[in-house]
Amino acid sequence: MKTGIDAISFDIAKIHLPIKTLAIARNIDPEKLEKGLGLIKMTLPDAHQDTVVFGANALTKLIIENNLKGAEIARIYVGTESAIDSSKPIGSFLVSLMEEKFGENTFSECDVVDFTFACIGGVDALQNCIDFVRLNPEKKAIVVTTDIAKYDLNSTGEYTQGAGALAILVSSNPRIIAFENNWATSTKGVFDFFKPYRTLPKSEITGNENNDPWFENLETEIEIHKDQPVFDGQYSNQCYMDRTRDAYFTFKKLKNSQKSVYNTWSSIIMHLPYAFQGRRMLSEIYILDAENPILSGTEDAAEYQNKLKEISKSEAYRNFVSEKLEAAELASSLVGNLYTGSIFMGFASTLAHFYDSKKEISGSTFGFLAYGSGSKSKVFEGSIQSDWKSAINNLNLFETLDQSFEIDFDTYEKLHKKEQTQSVQVPKNEWILDRIEKEIPNLMGARYYKWID
Question: Is 149 within 8 Å of 13 (Cβ atoms)?
Fold first, then answer.
């Protein structure tokens, strides 16, 4: 029996800022971002959107397009690092909204939970659901990845922003891809990228030292949470490379392979915080697992790094990237970072590219190199199934991305600062954030959503 992905749907923010517009405003050479990092657009949430909205839209499309019934779905597991509540998971919001649309109690027996481990949380959810379906082949599970990648204005991560969700149906005898039961992991606890709880003295807000109540807060400190992370770009890149390399060679041991593993993969799908991140991070694995040794292993650190750079610029490596990685980069260039969803968007991008170019990939093996800061990597592989084309016939990925609405820089900054409360695009056939409760004490902060026809 095979287990894997049977169907995919997505919901990407419908507005974007051209990277060139951002570059000019920030006095950055546009070619550095466009040709150096592969960035063309970054998508942004509209005033009526949050991670529940994106997840609910992607999930609704998956259910409708595949004629699913609530009773068929045993679990909806969510990967996210953009939670809107420290207790109530996004999964519980999704179930209530699906019952709103498809009928009361239609999902009452569905298990839900959120997985959080930076950008790899969606892969953790996928592995869990695959294991579940492998043990219960008559059941179906859904993985939803939903995130808003938001960085501080003028920061070095600003141009990698993005927003959206994917919903993935996991089943036995899948139409798209069946996964082998080899999952390699490399984990290390580091601070390369994180979103800490921060505090400041209440006296800085109230102007006195008496610790008087402030909006029912009795502590001397006010806790602050920001969607924007604390990060070290260069250190994060090194952690990405280290974890991915270690997981890759653990995977090679699991496969008991004496030859290069990546040469058995027709396409490689990686976590892409920006479009060209994968090609930058994969060069070391490409060198170390080459059929003919490229480095002797005797080089000192400086010489080793110089040779890495030299080989990564070689024609052979550029051809390797074009053949195995480029298809996954296409959508990333138009979307930006989706955190937990970026590896799945890379997969959808690859499928859509081959579908549009009429290339037959049935039977080919795809390799997946996932990464999440903090930090962890997982490496696994799967085989494309014979019905993959019919399963993505209505995906229309690039057609949908082409319809994105361009905003100007002033609108971008107002949305980022939450100064703009009116939606840029009028919502249609989608979920929206309707209101946040601000008066009823025992419901303070509760978020309510509704479907707009």
Answer: no
Alpha-carbon span 400 to 358, nearest angstrom: 19
State phi, psi for 282 to the nearest 5 degrees: -85, -10
Residue 297 has pLDDT above 80, yes or no: no
Alpha carbon distance 92, 114 (integer Å) = 9
Q: What percent of the chain has pLDDT over 90?
A: 91
pLDDT on residue 309: 86
- With both helix axes pointing from N to C terminus, report the angle between 342-356 and 326-335 in degrees, rounded to the nearest 10: 120
Among 145, 144, 140, CA closest to 170: 140
Residue 372, helix vs strand vs coil:
strand
What sign does the CA torsion over 148, 151, 154, 155 have?
negative
Q: What dihedral angle (degrees, nearest 10) is formed by the CA atoms of 28, 32, 34, 37? A: -120
406: helix, coil or strand?
strand
Nearest of 338, 356, 267, 411 to residue 58 by alpha carbon: 338
On the CB side of 229, CA atoms within 13 Å amount to 23
E strand segments, 150-253: 162-172, 177-179, 184-187, 193-194, 198-201, 221-224, 230-231
CA–CA distance from 14 to each of 70, 286, 402, 430 (Å)?
Answer: 28, 36, 10, 12
What is the per-residue pLDDT across 17-53, written as a single tens digit (0 to 9) for each? 999 999 999 999 999 999 999 999 999 999 999 999 9
Residue 253 has pLDDT above 70, yes or no: yes
- Read off the pLDDT of each residue in 218-224 and give the average, rounded to a whole number: 92
Report d(CA 275, CA 36) in Å as an integer: 10
Alpha carbon distance 111, 3 (integer Å)? 19
Residue 308 predicted with pLDDT over 90: no
Whether this model's pTM surpasses 0.85: yes
Distance between CA atoms of 240 and 373, rounded to whole angstroms? 7
Give the count of beta carbons closer than 10 Å to the beta carbon of residue 356: 12
Q: How far apart are CA 290 and CA 259, in angstroms?
A: 8
Q: What is the Cα–Cα distance from 88 to 94, expressed in whole angstroms?
A: 11
**Closest to 229 in 3D by CA, of 91, 349, 118:** 118
Pick from 335, 431, 406: which is nearest to 48 by CA?
431
CA distance 326 to 268: 9
Query: Could you tell me the two tokens for 291?
Result: 């059929």
- The yes-or-no verdict on residue 273 having pLDDT over 90 is yes
Rounded Cα–Cα distance for residues 263 and 433 (Å): 46
